[in-house]
Specification:
The chain is mainly beta and 126 residues long. A hairpin with a 5-residue loop joins strand 5 and strand 6. The strands form 2 sheets. Strands 2, 4, 5, 6, 9, 10 and 11 form a 7-stranded mixed sheet that branches. A 4-stranded antiparallel sheet has the order 1-3-8-7, with no helix packed on it. The radius of gyration is 13 Å and the shape is globular.
Length: 126
């Protein structure tokens, strides 16, 4: 089992920045990928970004490319999502997720992730 806890959400004005954290515990040696997903009001959960745990390769959704940056601290078992130039349409509950099954390429589908955090609310005002 891998336990994930997100933090860092809040209310920010458009154009502002926030940094989300995802602290992993438990069987962290089984991690392959940490992904960030978000679910806005009335919307389906969508992929935001992912990072390969061992080699730190990254992948981003087009909607956030150039504005968001995903990193990880391997020793602290924590992943981060630095969000800049935030827009009202970025408003959502942000979840981090852990993939513990190896797959080729970077996983972007929610079904490919095995463990989820409880989520943290990000609200961007116009």
């Amino acid at each position: 089992q891998v336990h994930l806890v997100e933090s860092g959400g809040g209310l920010v004005q458009a154009g502002g920045s926030l940094r989300l954290s995802c602290a992993a515990s438990g069987r962290t040696f089984s991690l392959y990928t940490i992904g960030w997903f978000r679910q806005g009001p009335g919307k389906e959960r969508e992929f935001v970004a992912a990072i390969a745990w061992k080699n730190a390769n990254t992948y981003y959704a087009d909607a956030v490319k150039g504005r968001f940056n995903i990193t990880r601290d391997y020793r602290e078992n924590t992943a981060y999502l630095q969000m800049s130039s935030l827009k009202p349409e970025d408003t959502a509950v942000y979840h981090c997720a852990a993939e513990t099954t190896w797959r080729p390429g970077m996983s972007t589908g929610p079904g490919e992730y095995d463990y989820w955090g409880q989520g943290t609310q990000v609200t961007v005002s116009a």
